[in-house]
Amino acid sequence: MSPWSRPWTAPSSRDVRAVFTDEYARELPELQRERAYAAAFARLGVDYDYPTMPLRSLVRRGRVAA
Question: Would the CA dihedral through 23, 27, 29, 32 be positive or negative?
């Protein structure tokens, strides 16, 4: 069966480009920007798996006495 036999179900390139070129989102800090992208894709019906904040920025390692 040909993959072209069913209609295109993903967002168009115009829709995706609009998400990534949104001026409001581009001015946000990185983590908030990724969340804004995820929300915009959710409005389009797409699950956008954005990378979360790296763990090294959340975990503070101290010296452990052995």
Answer: negative
The pLDDT profile of the chain, 66 residues, written as one tens digit per residue, is 777 787 877 888 899 899 999 999 999 998 889 889 889 988 988 887 765 545 444 444 455 555
- Distant-in-sequence, close-in-space partners of 34: CB < 8 Å, separation ≥ 6: 50, 51
Euclidean distance between CA atoms 47 and 40, whole angstroms:
10
Stated pTM of the model: 0.63
Distance CA 35, CA 39 (A): 6
